[in-house]
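**Sequence with structure:**
===
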Amino acid sequence: MLVRFADRSRARWLGVLVFAGMIGALPAAGLSFLSYKERDLVFRVEPGIAHWYSGLPAGVQELELPVSDNHALHAWWWPAPTRNAPAILYLHGSRWNLTGQLYRIEQLREFGFSVLAVDYRGFGKSRGGPPSEASVYEDARVAWERLARLQPDGKKRFIYGHSLGGAVAIELARSLGQQTTGRSRKPAAGLIVESSFTSLAEVAAALTSTRLPLQWLISQKFDSIDKLPQVNIPVLLVHGTHDRYIPHRFSEQLYQAAVAPKKLLLIEGGSHNNAMRAGSDEYRKALRDFFGIGRKARSARP
């Protein structure tokens, strides 16, 4: 199944390149179609419910978050058992909506977070779409505004992004940093990026082994490596060493581009989708040591 999916991904990327290479020879209507097709191939939205989804766990609240084009985002809010726990915004990648993300959301909650998870426009029950780079960035900002109301303490707010969602998370962290200057309080305590890439052009080139100048051909950039130096909150980068879709060297390059404080966690044997589960102990330790999540307060001496 994984091999077939990888083959389909490569074929879709090749389709993107073919369409992009034709842009210069088409009128405006053709350009509009190519833009739509490129977005469709990048996000690869699977309609309906993931076949492994068995329903919402107890305690999950379903929310609707209005966005600018009179549509609404569908979101899940799953508060932690501990009062005033740290809260994290979960930003997923391409293809699967929230019903395909539950196992990672469950794991983050087990780590001690309250979790707000959102479907971008065009995914799952979120109205609008099809998604684009600009629209998913806006959707992330809308979700962040809701998280800020759910957890008012900026020192207890975190951003998490998986795969393509990692690029969305990096852009959100960068844009939030621009809103704070000097000694202003930081809007977030940390950023976690898992199984992500440097830019869409570079990962597309890696999947297709093409020599075409993709950075000039595709309109959906997701250029994370140029944005990370502008992120002014602690960054934890996580990647499985056996990721067959996005090699872990991309996270190593992101780590080099990020500014301190930063940490790179490579999960030995982890795949694109199971790094959090395969390396749960290492993950938990990194969250405790780097962010203080789950760290017990020292008892006062008599």
Q: What stands out?
A: The CA atoms of residues 84 and 231 lie 26 Å apart.
